[in-house]
């Protein structure tokens, strides 16, 4: 159902992805002269957000919901890869790159929330299966 715990995790993952657009890592990615890194980061996070929101409303079929969350996690990993690439192209992690590292951490936290959502969807599916066995 929509009020389940995995819905909160998916909403939090989406909100974290939105906040990445307001961090310096996104600005640095968009400053790329060829612009493919910035476009790749923006599009992968946008697709992950759309898939998260879509999977929230697929609560009737939990197996399909897990599939959509896995797809969103794939795009989240791609976005995380773009963030890591931008972070290391700036010269690694130093005392002057804390803001960029924070943006990368937000993408990683979104991935963690997606994994937690998958875990709780699986728990719901196991609960429903066990109740069907009792009947």
Automatic annotation (TrEMBL):
Entry keyword set: Membrane, Transmembrane, Transmembrane helix
InterPro entries: DUF4293
Bilayer-crossing regions: 36-60, 72-96, 102-121
One Pfam family this sequence matches: DUF4293
Protein name, as recorded: DUF4293 family protein
């Amino acid at each position: 159902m929509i009020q389940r715990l995995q819905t909160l995790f998916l909403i939090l993952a989406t909100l974290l992805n939105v906040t990445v657009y307001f961090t310096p890592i996104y600005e640095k990615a968009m400053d790329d002269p060829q612009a493919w890194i910035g476009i790749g980061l923006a599009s992968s996070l946008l697709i992950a957000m759309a898939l998260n929101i879509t999977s929230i409303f697929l609560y009737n079929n939990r197996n399909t919901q897990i599939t959509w969350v896995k797809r969103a996690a794939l795009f989240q990993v791609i976005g995380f890869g773009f963030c890591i690439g931008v972070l290391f192209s700036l010269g690694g992690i130093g005392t002057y790159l804390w803001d960029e590292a924070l943006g990368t951490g937000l993408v990683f936290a979104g991935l963690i929330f997606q994994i937690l959502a998958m875990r709780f969807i699986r728990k719901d599916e196991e609960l429903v299966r066990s109740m069907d066995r009792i009947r």
